[in-house]
Fold this protein.
Amino acid sequence: MWNLEFNPGFKSIKEVLTGDKNATTIGSRDDWYQGSVKYWNEQPTTVDGVLGGYGVIHDADSATSGQMIDDMRDRISGFDRAIDLGAGIGRIAKTTLVPRFAAVDLLEPSEAQINKARENVPQINQFYQVGMQEFNYEKRYDCVWL
Ligand SMILES: C[S@@+](CC[C@H](N)C(=O)[O-])C[C@H]1O[C@@H](n2cnc3c(N)ncnc32)[C@H](O)[C@@H]1O
């Protein structure tokens, strides 16, 4: 649901992504996904960049995400394999998933972001440069992180 309160002056995500205030609709499905990848290719490949300027929350976010997984230890299928979807530069994969799961895969459609993730988290088992909407699951995951 588009929230005008948080995005004053923009009537749709397309206006934000294109900077075109005359654009009134999101457009086609492809426009939507390509616009998103374009946007993320142009953002700084830093913690602050993937968090939209709120890099300050990274430590607390990582710690509480890890705590949540730990608290679910008895309720999830195991710690063999996880996948980080829309992983950006691999921020959470690095701090939260790799330390807990035997193998971690990473999916990220933006070339700029995934290239930084390759540098940041070389421990990743398999990188997929693709959008979630196109991803075919070939393995069983204990944790699908989004
Ligand atoms: C706000 S960033 C968050 C990155 C990371 N999850 C984190 O917490 O640091 C959103 C990420 O989702 C990715 N993304 C955008 N569209 C996507 C799609 N269709 N499928 C998977 N990821 C997508 C972007 O490229 C971007 O890296």
